[in-house]
Amino acid sequence: MNIRESMEKMEKQVLSPYAACSIDSLGRDHYEEECDVRTVYQRDRDRILHCKAFRRLKDKTQVFLAPQGDHYRNRLTHTLEVSQIARTIAKALRLNGDLVEAIALGHDLGHTPFGHAGERALNHVCPEGFAHYKQSVRVVEVLEKNGEGLNLTKEVRDGILNHRTAAHPSTLEGQVVRYSDKIAYIHHDMDDAQRANIITEDDIPITLRMLLGFTTRERLNTFVHDIIENSLDRDEICMSAEIEEALRDLRAIMFRNVYENPVAKKEEGKAVEMLENLYYYYNDHPQNMSREYRELIEIRGEPKSRVVCDYLSGMTDQYSMEKFREIYIPRAWEVY
Questions:
Q1: Structural domain contains residue 289
Q2: N or C: which end of the chain has fewer CB within 10 A?
Q3: What distance lies between CA 14 and its chain's CA centroid?
Q4: pLDDT per residue over 192-251, tens digit each?
Q5: Which domain holds residue 140?
């Protein structure tokens, strides 16, 4: 018995009967020899961690565009916080931590530059529409490894696709990530907004603070404990009705005071217009995209509009601005 087989056996003995054990995975679309050291979900986690799309997350907006300060979150730090929260919950519930981590690390791989503003821009101009959760799956199935994809297991791809609020992941591990994503962004976006003096604790009703906690740290602790207490030894991940309603109320406060705040979002219109113009440019000049994207059109017959969105959504904030300047901003004349 090799190391992987020993770990698979241990999962069966230790994990909850509701956990997704590695040996029971529905597998990959393309057959591969099993690793003698790592389980299938460990391999998926490692593939995501080492892929190019994951590295680019460090230069993509979370909420605040080009914030002046070193401590504001970006899309990568958001992803890591989701992973940490999800792993804490999964461990307490005896779920598969490797599957949880793989889903969490991969859930935002398809996000655009400039956060949800970029997502709205591409959804507006692309005939097929654009949604970051669908794009994250496209990244791991099609775009990574020069068009080969990462060949991840079905459970990881299901969790990535269904991490949004309205979706229903098929595994408890995916459900954990779905809750953890929401808890993470409400927690850290409020922390960032307080740092930016856009919101204060006094903007949160005293009744909510008395229920959830008087700091972002206390509220995070309340949410995590509530999920664990209400999901232990159950076949679904859930919160108590009272705390889940409070989470929705806190989210509504964030939308009203931060996500739709004209001070926090004053530059978003420029980002949207820039990405829309880049879309129209590359749609007219696909030959100016990188080789691997051109080949998706020329060799694999992918729709040009979809590939242009692939190209733009893969850009970091700075790279998209650099391309816009290169295309649309005239350079000073030089004598050679």
A1: no
A2: C
A3: 29
A4: 889 888 899 999 999 999 999 999 999 999 999 999 999 999 999 999 999 999 999 999
A5: 3-259
